[in-house]
Amino acid sequence: MPVTAFTTDPDTLTLTITAQFAAPVERVWELYADPRQLEQVWGPPGYPATFVEHDLSAGGRMTYYMTAPDGERYGGWWQISEVDAPRRFTFEDGFADPDLRPLADMPVSHNVYSFEPADGGTRAVFTSTYSSAEALQQVLDMGVEEGATSAINQIDGFLAA
Questions:
Q1: Strand residues in 10-48 grouped as ranges (E)
Q2: Is the terminal CB of the chain with fewer CB neighbours within 10 Å at N or C?
Q3: Measuring CA to CA, which residue among 89, 95, 90, 82 is closest to residue 28?
Q4: For 23, which DSSP code?
């Protein structure tokens, strides 16, 4: 399983996921840079993603939705702030309505995704910082640990295929 740690720190309002992938940094980066590849692993199993917008560049925007087994759609958006390919990118991440408009009453997190060579593959660290302890707790209560872990754990299988 690629996920090696999932930690939360209420003092710094962060949630951090560490994973080890059996592929080089450039290949892992390629997954995030290509919306058709990212769709294969973004979201937990059974909730396939569709990226409507995908611009992994500073100032770029991504919008997507995941489709539940019952057909309900869950939207999200990323506003990319910094890109240092293939090592890291930073972005704001929020929830969206079915028409992919940002939901103002839902938490927004600042994220840093970083990738470095390690143990013959790639060590990835995904850090999300929230504006309040309540916002962090809200996403935890929504099942972010289970959802993110199961999504990330699909990556090695996809990259090996």
A1: 14-21
A2: C
A3: 89
A4: S
